[in-house]
Amino acid sequence: MKKVYIGCDHAGFAIKGLVIKLLQKRGYEVEDLGTYSSERVDYPDYAEKVARAVAADKESFGVLICGTGIGMSIAANKIKGIRAAEVHDYYTAQMARAHNDANIVCFGERVVGPGVVESIIDAWCNTEFEGGRHENRVKKIMALEE
Ligand code: RB5
């Protein structure tokens, strides 16, 4: 069973429960790394927790939710081995997997509603990395870490 690490800040807390349920319904084992209330916190702390967990567990992927998805993706991409993609809808979630082999999906609770979140999870879970011409491009991204 594929493992999913999920994290949010206070601005993503309200929708996190729905996301966990959607992932569990699809058979994933979900580990919730916080935050656990709507009390104000700093999103980089949760981006770091999820990004380090995903970087250490190559078979897993991560989900990060904040107000916009922007801060979470910026912070998570600082961790070696992470390709965090901020997505907005089915298409961007699908492309983040198919072309970028992203291993963390980020989105904003203040940007997308429950219906769009479900389509993001659908696209993310049902799309494999295409490889081929994208393989070398992803390798070039990872080489930028050196
Ligand atoms: C919190 O107000 C907000 O700045 C944060 O959730 C996120 O949107 C940052 O990128």
Describe the structure.
- The protein has six helices and five strands.
- It is an alpha/beta fold and 146 residues long.
- It has a single domain (3-143), classed as Ribose 5-phosphate Isomerase B, Chain: A.
- Strands 2-1-3-5-4 form a five-stranded parallel beta sheet, with helices on both faces.
- β1, α1 (13-25) and β2 (29-32) form a beta-alpha-beta unit.
- It is globular, with a radius of gyration of 14 Å.
- Residues 9, 11, 43, 66-68, 70-71, 108 line the site of D-ribose (RB5).
What attributes characterize this protein structure?
five-stranded parallel β-sheet, globular, alpha/beta, Ribose 5-phosphate Isomerase B, Chain: A, single chain
Main beta sheet strand tally, sense and closure: 5 strands, parallel
β-strand percent reads: 15-25%
Give the number of helices.
6
The top level CATH class name: Alpha Beta
CATH fold annotation = Ribose 5-phosphate Isomerase B, Chain: A
> What value does the average pLDDT take?
97
Unreliable residue stretches: none
Query: Span from first to last CA?
Result: 32 Å
Supply Rg.
Answer: 14 Å
CATH superfamily: Sugar-phosphate isomerase, RpiB/LacA/LacB
Task: Quickly give the structural class.
Answer: alpha/beta
CATH architecture annotation: 3-Layer(aba) Sandwich
Question: What is the N-to-C order of secondary-structure elements (H for helix, E for strand)?
Answer: EHEHEHEHEHH
Number of domains: 1
Strand order of the largest sheet: 2-1-3-5-4
Ligands (ions, cofactors included): D-ribose
> What is the helical fraction, as a range of percent?
40-55%
Layout of strands and helices, then pairs:
Layout: E1 3-8, H1 13-25, E2 29-32, H2 43-56, E3 61-66, H3 70-76, E4 84-86, H4 90-98, E5 104-108, H5 114-125, H6 133-143
Parallel strand pairs: 1-2, 1-3, 3-5, 4-5
Helix pairs in contact: 1-5, 2-3, 4-5
